Amino acid sequence: MDKPTLYIANKNYSSWSFRPWMALTGTGVDFEEVLIPFDYPGGNPDIKAISPTGRVPLLQHGALKIWESLAIIEYVAELYPDAGLLPRGRAERALARSVSMEMLSSFRALRSACPMNIRRPKGKIALPDGVDADISRIETIWRDLLQQSGGPFLFGAFSGADAMFAPVVNRFDIYDLVSRNDTLAYMETMKAHPAWRKWEEAARAEPWIVAEDEV
User: Fold this and answer.
1) Per the database record, which ranges form the GST N-terminal domain (predicted)?
2) Of 129, 113, 78, whose CA–CA distance to 215 is shortest?
3) β-strand 58-61 against 32-35: which pairing, if any?
4) Exposure letters 108-119 (e unless 16+ CB within 10 A, then b)
5) For 122-167, how does the pLDDT look when each residue is reduced to its tens digit (9 = 90+)?
6) Neighbours of 148 (CB within 10 A)
7) Which of 32, 89, 95, 163 is 20 to 30 Å from 153 by CA-CA measure?
8) Which DSSP state fits 121?
9) What secondary structure letter does DSSP report for 9?
10) What's the pTM value of the predicted model, to 2 decimals?
11) 3-class state of residue 79 by DSSP
12) pLDDT tens figures, 84-132
């Protein structure tokens, strides 16, 4: 089987890239990585030449191009059904898809106020309306799934659903947004994953600064 290629942007800032990269790396899927850095304010023409949306992440497998993080994870889960990107049980797969889609489509207040930034020193900021509700909902999702599965990840073993929430783990951490013991324990589990550590090391070594994401 031909090895897929994953196009991503800056590891320090690109939450959308982090999700599929974490999912594929964390489950041992072999892929090629191509990083095309952000180039604000006009955008990077190299991204526009690769991606039909002008954005990343994008997975290329032969002539096929798949964009959007969750679509990439779902496609690779079909390519490698034994990798563990999706839980094995039908009910668990349905739940994983539900919470992953909710992550993809919701929590706009949190995303806007607290951009992902691996290098940012930990510290609180003033939070606009809506962020506390987003935090509460995410904590509820995590708590319910961890109680059902027994942990240490949302569905027991690491899966694509955990990867979908990886940028939130960074946001909760660097903006000091949460204090519940169960939330903090899950965050520490995620941050200890070898894939997370590999991404973090590369992000901290990057030279690029994106002013829009420095809060």
Assistant:
1) 4-84
2) 113
3) unpaired
4) ebbbebbbbbbe
5) 999 999 999 999 999 999 999 999 999 999 999 999 999 999 999 9
6) 14
7) 32
8) P
9) -
10) 0.96
11) helix
12) 999 999 999 999 999 999 999 999 999 999 999 999 999 999 999 999 9
Q: Please state the three-class secondary structure of 134-173 as a single string.
A: HHHHHHHHHHHHHHHHCCCECEEECCHHHHHCHHHHHHHH
| Identity at 89, one-letter amino acid code | G
The residue type at 88: R
Report the SS3 class of residue 35: strand
Grade residue 48 by pLDDT with cuts at 50, 70 and 90. Answer: confident
Going by their DSSP bridges, the two strands 32-35 and 5-8 should be labelled as parallel
- Is-contact 12 207, C-beta < 8 A? no
Residue type, 121: P
Judge contact between 129 and 112, C-beta under 8 A. no
Nearest CA-CA partner of 151 in 163, 141, 142, 160: 142
Write out the two tokens for 181: 């013991």
Helix (H) / strand (E) element for 122: namely none
What token pair was written down for 83? Answer: 């990798």
Residues 6+ apart with CB under 8 A from 77: 83, 85, 86, 160
Domains of the chain and CATH, by start: 5-83 (3.40.30.10), 90-198 (1.20.1050.10)
pLDDT at 52 over 80: yes
H or E stretch covering 80: none
Residue 100's CB is within 10 A of a number of other CB atoms, namely 25
